Amino acid sequence: MLAERGFSVVSSDRMARLAVEKGSECLRQLVDAFGQDILTQDGALNRTALAAKAFGNPEKTLLLNRITHPHIMKLIRAEIAACYEQGASVVVLEVPLLKESGIADECDAVVVVNADAEIRKQRIIQRDGLSAEKAELRMNTQTPYEDEKAIFFENSGDPRKMKQFADELTKSLQKKWNLQL
Description:
By secondary structure, the chain is mainly α.
């Protein structure tokens, strides 16, 4: 929604997919840590197999994060730099694991879009085709973001409310930083 309003948006999910592409150093490290069976027949990452190994065990989740986060952060920083080189005045980061990634400290403002746990679980089940139990395991790996300076929005799934929030946020940021989008 913010890209539609003129913001440059960097998605950490997209960067995470790039980080683990077939033949990447990150994927090699994951294979070393979790085994060859996290690969598909053609050598790409089998996300379901990796998730089964990583998300049921807190130590394995930490290992997954220790391997992937540096690669993802390198790509995010490169993408941010590219946005600014192309003339962006503001770059918005979509980062689900904001606290775990450590990038919040590098941001001028933080907007947290949250949803009720049951809504989040249903979204994960629909998006990733997981069971309720596996979706909960994945949710339990995320640390809630708490910061009194952050802007919080509760996303119940109402598109009108989300659009209104995006409009208000855009106006607020334009005013705060004198932005021309």
